[in-house]
Design a protein that fits this description.
This protein has twelve helices and eleven strands. The model has no long low-confidence stretch (mean pLDDT 94). The two termini are 18 Å apart. Helix content is 35%, strand content 18%. Helix 5 links the parallel strand 4 and strand 5. It is globular and about 45 Å long. By secondary structure, it is α/β, with parallel strands linked by helices. The chain has a nine-stranded mixed sheet with strand order 3-2-1-4-5-6-11-9-10, sandwiched between helices. The structure holds beta-D-ribofuranose and calcium ion. The site of beta-D-ribofuranose (BDR) has 13 residues, from helix 1 and helix 6. One of its GO terms (biological process) is purine nucleoside catabolic process. GO terms for molecular function: purine nucleosidase activity; uridine nucleosidase activity. Keywords: Glycosidase, Hydrolase. It comes from Bittarella massiliensis. It holds the Pfam family IU_nuc_hydro.
């Protein structure tokens, strides 16, 4: 079994990713860490506990960083204790709480997420643990800064974040990176095997109401929650961002899980050098992927980046995983 840790800012799509990862018989989920992102960390933690409870409540949840590393402190982001997107359509994509589940009756662990990440990775063999971060990179950057000896313990990082040709928070930046650009750059600087699943891939792997129906037909409670979250996202995207001719929504975060189940869901994966724009101008938080293979003085690749995805296979993988629930 592959040992994984999910780092999440739950969130509608994080919730689906968690359900699928916890259902995957080939994963051993060691723990789930939460972070400030879609909402403030007390809310993303509560939402994570709701999903953990839905899935049996056996995997421990650790509360992570409440603020990004640099951006809020520098006045580059507003400090909004309960981050409410200004755009009501976007607020419909991620309701504040995962309303499909009742309030959690289980609680997070006492140990802070960054401390637990360091302890768990230090106790692991080299290359033993896969990290699946699905929100701002804050927790992992802090852990690596405090204890750099954890770097070789990480088998790989599969990250939902960034965009080559697409932004969704600003014209240049994807949301997860935009919240905490410096943390992502710090993690990239560690030269850990790193795969980006950016907007370019997730927007190709959009789901429609027909796909949601197929997930719903699996019939279990987790499948119903996942299907309802897909429908919620389709409604939200209908007045926010058009991703296909028919009503549809990208379901970003679970594409990382799907890729680890079957890499063929990604149709184009390119080695590249990624640099995060930390310049605090209009492109702050942009992921600049140099894929020119050494022309124009490119630096050596420090990551792989997914530029295409097979949406039919993606929907199939989600269905297959939900059948284990
Ligand atoms: C990412 O930002 C969040 O809104 C989603 O949960 C996803 O991780 C997409 O840009
Ligand atoms: Ca997320």
């Amino acid at each position: 079994k592959r040992k994984v840790i999910l780092d999440v800012d739950t969130g509608s799509d994080d919730a689906i990713a968690l359900i699928c990862a916890l259902a995957n018989p080939d994963f051993e989920v060691l723990g789930i860490t939460t972070v400030n992102g879609n909402r403030a960390v007390p809310i993303t933690t509560e939402n994570t506990l709701r999903i953990s409870e839905l899935m049996g409540g056996k995997v421990p949840v650790y509360r992570g960083c409440a603020l990004p590393w640099v951006s809020v402190m520098m006045g580059l982001r507003p400090y909004i204790p309960q981050y409410e997107p200004a755009d009501p359509a976007y607020a419909g994509i991620h309701r504040t709480y995962i309303e499909q589940c009742p309030p959690a009756t289980i609680r997070e662990e006492e140990t802070p997420a960054v401390v637990w990440l360091i302890q768990t990775l230090m106790a692991a063999e080299d290359g033993e643990i896969t990290l699946i971060p699905l929100g701002p990179m804050t927790n992992i950057a802090y852990a690596l800064r405090i204890e750099p000896r954890i770097a070789p313990k990480i088998r790989e990082i599969v990250y939902m974040g960034g965009g080559y040709k697409i932004g969704n928070e600003t014209a240049a930046a994807e949301f997860n990176v935009w919240v905490d650009p410096e943390s992502l750059q710090a993690v990239l600087d560690e030269n850990i095997p790193f795969t980006f699943i950016p907007l370019d891939a997730t927007h190709q792997a959009y789901l429609t109401e027909e796909d949601a129906q197929r997930l719903r037909r699996v019939g279990t409670r987790p499948a119903q929650v996942a299907a309802d979250l897909v429908s919620q996202r389709i409604r939200g995207y209908s007045t926010w961002q058009k991703v296909a001719e028919e009503p549809a929504a990208p379901i970003h975060d679970p594409l990382c899980v799907a890729y680890l189940v079957d890499p063929a869901v990604i149709t184009e994966l390119i080695s590249a050098h990624c640099q995060v724009d930390c310049g605090r101008g209009a492109a702050y938080g942009q992921t600049i992927f140099d894929i020119k293979n050494g022309r124009l003085g490119a630096k050596a690749p420090n990551c792989k980046v997914a530029l295409g995805a097979d949406r039919v296979r993606f929907a199939q993988i989600l269905e297959e995983l939900l059948e284990h629930t």
